[in-house]
Amino acid sequence: MAADLNLEQITIVVTDSGLGGMSVAAELAAKLRALRAFRRVRIVFFNSSFSKDSGYNRLEKHGDKLRIFNHALESMHGKYAPNLILIACNTLSILFPETAFARKKLVPVIGIVEAGANLIAEKLRSEPESRVILFGTQTTIDAGTHKRALIDAGLEANRIIQQACPMLESVIEEDVESEQTRCMISEFVRKALAKPGAHSDPFFASLNCTHYGYAMNFWRSAFIQQHRVPSDILNPNSRMLAFLDSPELANRFSESIIEMEVVSRVEIRHRTIGSICKLLRHISPIAHAALHQYQFNVNLFEIE
After folding, report:
1. Domain interval for residue 127
2. pLDDT digit string (tens) for 34-57?
3. Cα torsion 85, 86, 92, 94: sign
4. 304 lies in some domain
5. Are residues 261 and 284 in the same domain?
6. What are the b/e assignments for 216-232, b being 16+ CB within 10 Å?
7. pLDDT (tens digit, 9 = 90+) per residue, 132-146?
8. pTM for the whole thing?
9. 1 is a domain residue
């Protein structure tokens, strides 16, 4: 189902299982303000995290992941009536097609997995001898969705190396500049480069979790420490917004009024807000302010 972009006013919900997708929401706000495609835009960043003590990647039962995320999707639709939902989370994008909400086809939904796979495929085709190292959460890597999409696109399986990074997204969200973040990234890069097939150049590194791009400097440093420099470190977040690249959308109005709110059923620590806001400020002051003023609502969606 394609989104209707011929509207004067539009509501877009951006969701993630944490705050990694705030980078997508911030870029969306900045892009729409410059594009002037709509008279008024309401952006809702909906944190689909369900517990401060757990997360989707910690749940053992696949059915529990689907049930909880389905509750979140129903709440997004019921509370905000979006014209479009952006799932700015690889884990949740992989879960989405299996949810009951997806089968209803109530609203257009764009997931980040397809955007990431398309970006990787373009890069691999641009350098026919290259390989890619896919970094992602345990759920993302276990699902193998990116790898299957690349193989379906005609790319050889031996050009794709996968590296799970358990709990890295949580550590980044806690404090992106911490020593723990640096050490974990360094260790995951070391492990990835030790895998069969990862010894040859050229290669790309793909960050298939929206949190990972916040720590881009640590990723670059980790590769330098291993004396291996990728041709590029791919961050699919921007590619997710390619649906706005149509020339017909530009300058439809003299200005766009952009409103953003951040909602969460789990309390967000001040330290976390400060850490992420430092990175959002230069992208979008609107997103920066919205995160500082986030709405904490324990009844945002059900989990049972």
Report:
1. 113-234
2. 999 999 999 999 999 999 888 888
3. positive
4. no
5. yes
6. eebbeebbeeeebebeb
7. 999 999 989 998 999
8. 0.89
9. no
